Amino acid sequence: MTGGMxxxxxxxxxxxxxxxxxxxxxxxxxxxxxxxxxxxxxAGIPGNPDHLDPALSYTNEGWEILEATNNxxxxxxxxxxxxxxxxxxxxxxxxxxxxxxxxxxxxxxRPGVKFSSPVNRDVRPSDFKFSIERLFRVDSxxxxxxxxxxxxxQYAKTRKGGISGIVADDKKGxxxxxxxKPDGTFxxxxxxxxxxxxxxxTPDKDIxxxxxxxxxxxPYRITDYVPHQSITIRRNPTFRSWTPDTPNGHLxxxxxxxxxxxxxxxxxxxxxxxxxxxxxxxxxxxxxxKKQYPNQVFxxxxxxxxxxxxxERKYPFNKLAVRQAVNYAIDRNAxxxxxxxxxxxxxxxxxxxxxxxxxxxxxxxxxxAKAKQLIQQAGxxxxxxxxxxxxxxxxxxxxxxxxxxxxxIGLKATVKTFDESVYWDTIASEKGDPQIAxxxxxxxxxxxxxxxxxxxxxxxxxxxxxxxxxxxxxPAYNKLIDxxxxxxxxxxxxxxxxxxxxxxxxxxxxxxxxxxxxxPKFVSSRLHGLVxxxxxxxxxxxxxxxx
Amino acid sequence: MNGSPPxxxxxFRTAWRRLRRNPAAIGSAIVLFLILFACFPxxxxxxxxxxxxGPDDQNIQGTVTENGHKVPVVANDGTPIxxxxxxxxxxxxxxxxxxxxxxxxxxxRVSLEVGITSAVLCVLVALLLGILxxxxxxxxxxxxxxxxxxxxxxxxxxxxVALATAFAVNGISIGPLHVASTxxxxxxxxxxxxxxxxxxRPIRGQVLTLRRMEFIEAAIASGYRPTRIMAVELLPxxxxxxxxxxxxxxxxxxxxxxxxxxxxxxxxxxxxSWGNIIEQGxxxxxxxxxxxxxxxxxxxxxxxxxxxxxxALRDAFDPHARxxxxx
Lengths: 547, 327
Known about the structure:
The complex is a heterodimer of chains A (547) and B (327). Chain A has 547 residues and is α+β, with helices and mostly antiparallel strands. Chain A has 14 helices and 23 strands. Chain B has helices at residues 9-20, 23-51, 100-136, 138-152, 156-170, 185-211, 214-221, 226-262, 274-281, 290-317; strands at 63-66, 69-72, 172-174, 177-179. Chain B is elongated, with a radius of gyration of 23 Å.
């Protein structure tokens, strides 16, 4: 997923379980005594979330909201730190029974979990079958998680007759998934919002702005959504908590104000008009805020890699020497300064949170002379290059830095920026297809596969919703990725990810990673109960307001 | 109505005499000259003799020496160095470690180039449309006037943003002519288009008056071709008006460039212009206000000088005129 905005994933089927991985998460903070119920959280986000439809949303903003309103069979534990990486039952009454050598997952659906009005009925196994099949009918970015189900690929083509590998029995309250091969990450996929329950009959289109189909199962529901203006979230009256991982929530509601800039958010938070803001603190304000409001600034760390991505199919980045030159040319410490020091420099694809899969390497020390030499060797001096980036600060400064560096080493660079609300979809389509672009990635689920397989396995290159934006496609590495995916979690599997990280950067260099970013947050003095989960991000149901 | 041209070459000499007696005009002309000198010959001179780095040179990891101590150009928390009495970074640096003073000088070049070029283009097209429309009359006048009304019916900035956004995608393509989306020609064309009616309509009105005068009727009776009448008889008589408009509209265009660049649809991001510098600096207006204040002052000084000079020109050519540009 892309930072700030999540990109479409075409995640291949995989074989491992996420529990036990180092978490991408986090910290909790803002605890200020005993939680009290009530109050409306005043929240702000810079732009619209991509969608408020669980089948379609693939942004952090969307997932944060949908986590509070909807549920799946499984969920990541609603906790910070390593605990938040654990998959636990949600609407399923227990973890699935896995049989047939890991190819069959059987879930028992918990009775009494209700859809909100106007549906007002219990969630049934057939709703989950419907929801997974709907992903394919609405061209969801999450279909890649479920193509390992028997019959899913056929259904993706025909969209008729249902997915044969999903068997729902409403009488028995069970739903069974038959996979074409074992997949240890299947539990993780079932905990993502793509697998959240939608009632049978939900139309095959984006329901973000169709109030009667924004059906909730969780403690909150979206009562109103005016794009570019506001999202109103209130308690779901039909909700009754069924496990500690589906808490009631403390807030009476959340008013999300759309279009709040980071600077505006700091000022309004300091004035007490805003409680919480989606984006991190503007880099230039952090030092002063830490001094002035030490109890209201929280340094959340995600599993994140921030990088420039080079299109291996486009001149001049179709030449390895040019990609390596860019890696030599950028000064990663300088880029971290552009981000206000809110991160640590890196040359790795994987973030440090992935335990043994993360082995830091230093293949590209900052060396402008070497970069110029490589550009000359490649014979691409003066090649026109357009650097793409989005318009949310400080990304424009970062892409200007890169363009300046490219000009310095002999290319002829210009910059093109897009509104962030359309940027991620644009760079992920063949029509957009930038030469070189800003990118960053936060975890979908806490394992290295979410980076290397999703974004660097050439087998997943597609025309729309392409996460392999560099179009990296090295058959030998693809095979190695597939091998790692088939292995159980553990040191051997991690060792392959670490090896791939090194090999991809050394011999392919489609990325120029430069930072593992942190997200310092500034919140109001009355907001408490901040919990930062690696997948769902900040958990609204845990937040509470002091009066 | 008399039979001789109301404004002739002699009026320029009269106007020049009036201008010389106007201290505000002289003052603003001096300020403009200084700005032009600083931006054009001054910018490269400053770079080659004082600070030795260009407007795009990024020096995030660099240091400057102050009171014997090395001070980072950009601190670890991303805060750039502020203004100080030194050859380099006289007005401080931006987040990318670029010298603000150097960027201000080179940015001024771009802003003035855009402002002046778009004003010249605008006035030329306005002259053509205004004279043709008023002289030809009939269907030609109707078509041109409705076209001008159409442009006039849009709020200036709304139309400018819409055009600039449209051109920003694929540039401008007219037959074999292609202007790249990153070209400076895009904001120049956009800004000139949106102000054409504001110049063309008063010119048309002036030509309508001239058209009824005897010297034009005499020229027609003498069998002169319409193109000759428009070029030789009418054009010189609206030239002073066009000159006044040109001065005033340069100021307006500089402001429009700044506004469009601030909104991200003006001058390409990598090219320094006063508007771009403000756009890149306003995010840090609390912690590094000099990034916004300095280019803002430069714009203000230039625009005020141009307006004062434009008003003085108007008064010099025709003390009773009511020429105004309203955006």
